[in-house]
């Protein structure tokens, strides 16, 4: 009997893991945890491969219902993050984005863009203790940006070049990312 149980131990663990992933109440926390573990600093796009924003014509709405024009950020370092409250990789990277936002608020512009209603995103931000500004799109985003896959994040330099284009969760508060942002902020 002991030998039989000992040989089946891996099958039991596998069965429990499958069960955890099937149950909705446990699946999302597990997915968030795994995404946090697998999140690394995003890669910088080589200079010769960087795409440039076609324009800055993009109208957004903040959680207070005020219209915001993305064109006001022209000439600034910008981080655009497409996210949703139901997206485990988005939730996994939010703590690092909040730390980055706290460090660089007022030095660069941040746009956390969700397709969800303001009440949903505001409640999520309050519940998690985040102070990042959330927006909803009122017009199409400037190309080549798109938020079809969540999360997708862009770091844009002062000239409108996309320095980082990251699809999936990342550690945005890494020393490497902060170093890149610091160098972009010093550029004329």
UniProtKB/TrEMBL annotation:
UniProt name for this protein: TlpA family protein disulfide reductase
InterPro entries assigned: Redoxin, Thioredoxin-like_sf, Thioredoxin_domain, Thioredoxin_ResA/DsbE_sf
Protein source organism: Salegentibacter chungangensis
One Pfam family this sequence matches: Redoxin
PANTHER family referenced in this protein's UniProt entry, alphabetically: PROTEIN DIPZ (PTHR42852:SF13), THIOL:DISULFIDE INTERCHANGE PROTEIN DSBE (PTHR42852)
PROSITE patterns for the chain: THIOREDOXIN_2
Thioredoxin domain ranges (all copies): 49-186
């Amino acid at each position: 009997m002991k030998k039989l149980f000992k040989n089946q131990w891996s099958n039991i663990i596998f069965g429990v893991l499958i069960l955890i992933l099937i149950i909705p109440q446990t699946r999302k926390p597990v997915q968030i945890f795994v995404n946090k573990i697998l999140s690394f600093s995003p890669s910088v796009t080589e200079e010769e491969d960087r795409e440039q924003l076609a324009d800055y014509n993009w109208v957004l709405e903040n959680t207070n219902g005020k219209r915001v024009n993305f064109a006001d950020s022209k000439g600034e370092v910008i981080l655009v993050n497409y996210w949703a409250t139901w997206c485990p990789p988005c939730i996994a990277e939010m703590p690092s984005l909040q730390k980055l936002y706290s460090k660089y608020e007022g030095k660069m512009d941040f746009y956390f863009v969700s397709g969800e209603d303001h009440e949903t995103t505001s409640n999520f931000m309050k519940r998690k203790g985040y102070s990042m500004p959330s927006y909803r799109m009122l017009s199409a985003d400037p190309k080549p940006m798109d938020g079809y896959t969540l999360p997708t994040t862009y770091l844009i330099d002062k000239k409108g070049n996309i320095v980082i284009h990251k699809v999936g969760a990342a550690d945005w508060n890494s020393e490497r990312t902060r170093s890149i942002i610091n160098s972009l902020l010093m550029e004329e």
